[in-house]
């Protein structure tokens, strides 16, 4: 019999219950025991959904209150001393690492948080010391949660981040120089102890995630698999049977690692992303090893194409036999929304095209039956074939006018009129900015009041006029605060936007939207990606009204604020029937019109955010990466190159891993870049000198993910460090990212310190300007 398996389930719950509970706890409105009870309720509900759907292998320890990698930092007692020495309660120590803690005399910033592979999920980076030790936490979470499920009558397969990935995804702490992978010998014994404890609790199998196997690996990381998995494999029946899971890419280039898994029961591969790896992987498996075939997409919301999946799984069955094949999700379903059943407003035609997590769990169950006994699920197979046909034949997907415009794009449309030097000369006279200009990244606090008013407007409880008036008042307030703070380039604060991608999706043809399809982005923060179903075009200007109003009430340059084509694409659920480059170019053309309209309406600084540009980079070097960079950079340039030289184009990236990506950033030819940097070593900026980068840069000086307010001295120190790597005339002073998640008090405090620090350096350098 072919078994079914799910690699992980979304944590938030039907109505973002976990978000609400966490935030209530942080706000002092929910007790710790009530928060923990809510976590338990959600875990049980999610296990039950999977059990009821007939899933054979149900994951546990996939739940996390904040982030699953952070869970492992505590699990291995790898908590940096600055947190452990605070003697916080264990849950508060956990949240302190995730989001910082500034309360009761304790003042610690958060650990660094970065993108989880090429997804929009963020994990907390293991941050390791030269003298790092690891021990197993008391009452280990994977064991506790396995027992919790067992008590409810559900036998689960605990999920662990594997030892090699845990270390390879970590970094040395500031002041340490340890190579994380060199700590393997110290970490493996803790996995041994944990696996034995799981076995003792009754776990028969365990899923160990080693997603780094899809990367091009450094030699030392690659070599680490052998000692790690030989040690774990040697445990034999003293440990649960191990399945090593990989996802988001293929592992063919790392086949030389596979002998390390000789004593491992099974291997999971992502056949949605890389179906072509099936045949070679089948040839590599040992004589009794099991293949977990990831055929149900954990990263998108399209209904599974049963026919295609069945063909893939049957190929595996032919090679291995039914007992050695498992039908699985391609990755954890963490990246998909909870259930389609909550969507009451989707057009009837498209509703049936989608599957969210609850529906995907059912798909896995159906496929596991269909591969051996199609007649048992004939009705489901026929219904699925009908949906595939309806989508392929729908008129929604094709707009000839969009195609015609794409055909008319010429190479010169990608380039600004003049070089940066000529543009900058004009911008300098036009904008009259001081040395070390200060600005923010766009959003100001999205207060409860803003969300309530938007919700009322969406429900028709207030009119468009009332909502517009409300937004104007919010803009007035943002401008007033920026006056008081004495910033140099203002923003309107984005109060009218629910989200930087969803907002644009809602104003473009070719998209549909959901009401409840939330996906965790980090901690308690969720996003509701709009869905691209057809060719994209802009029926009307999208941001001009608000930016024009903001400029009219502001005495300093007002920055227009747009989300770039690549980010709109990446943070939407894209189509799978058309290449992403085509969808991206359609977005670029729509945004080009918007950029030109902003300029026509008196906005001469325009920021086009591309925070997802890096995340979209194919995970491995090579031709796929080169092709991506070509179309991604071209799309940005197409969107921004329609303006005059005197208009200053900014772009923004909220990640600091730009080393392998520097040339793409440079190729955007943006006049000013703002990049996340406050939690990274300023040394990373060296690449800008090494490469003789001519244009202007604002490396973030304030970690906006944390409620903590840095003091003026910290800002000064940071700026001083940056000045070792950047010319004073090219340095802008700004936060890491937008301030929508912060409270006004935090923003005012932090920006006051930031502006004072900038003024201090302005004074220091006034004679050198
Ligand atoms: C910059 N980032 C973004 C990413 N991806 C995006 N798509 N958008 C981003 O901005 N990826 C990388 C980073 C991740 N960072 C963040 C930061 C902040 C959030 C966030 O704050 N998310 C909000 C939800 C935002 C939203 O869509 N708000 C809507 C709906 C608000 C709402 O909850 N309404 C209630 C009803 C209102 C009431 O009565 O209270 C409801 O619908 O039930 C809006 O403002 O209208 C979050 O709360 O998590 C995400 C990623
Ligand atoms: N302009 C956006 C960028 C976020 S990446 C903001 O400020 O929220
Ligand atoms: Zn950002």
From TrEMBL:
- SUPFAM superfamilies linked: UROD/MetE-like
Q: In which pathway does it act?
A: Amino-acid biosynthesis; L-methionine biosynthesis via de novo pathway; L-methionine from L-homocysteine (MetE route): step 1/1
Q: Where does L-homocysteine bind?
A: 441-443, 609
Q: In which residues is Zn(2+) bound?
A: 652, 654, 663, 676, 737
Query: What is the cofactor note?
Result: Binds 2 Zn(2+) ions per subunit.
> Main EC class of this protein?
transferase
Supply the EC number(s). Answer: 2.1.1.14
Superkingdom of origin: Eukaryota
Binding site residues for L-methionine: 441-443, 494, 609
Q: Which residues carry out catalysis?
A: 705 (proton donor)
Which cofactor names does the annotation list? Zn(2+)
- The entry's 5-methyltetrahydropteroyltri-L-glutamate-binding residues are 19, 120, 525-526, 571
One GO-annotated biological process of the protein: methylation
Region: Disordered, residue numbers: 389-413
Which family does the record assign? Belongs to the vitamin-B12 independent methionine synthase family.
Specify the protein name: 5-methyltetrahydropteroyltriglutamate--homocysteine S-methyltransferase
- Organism equals Apodospora peruviana
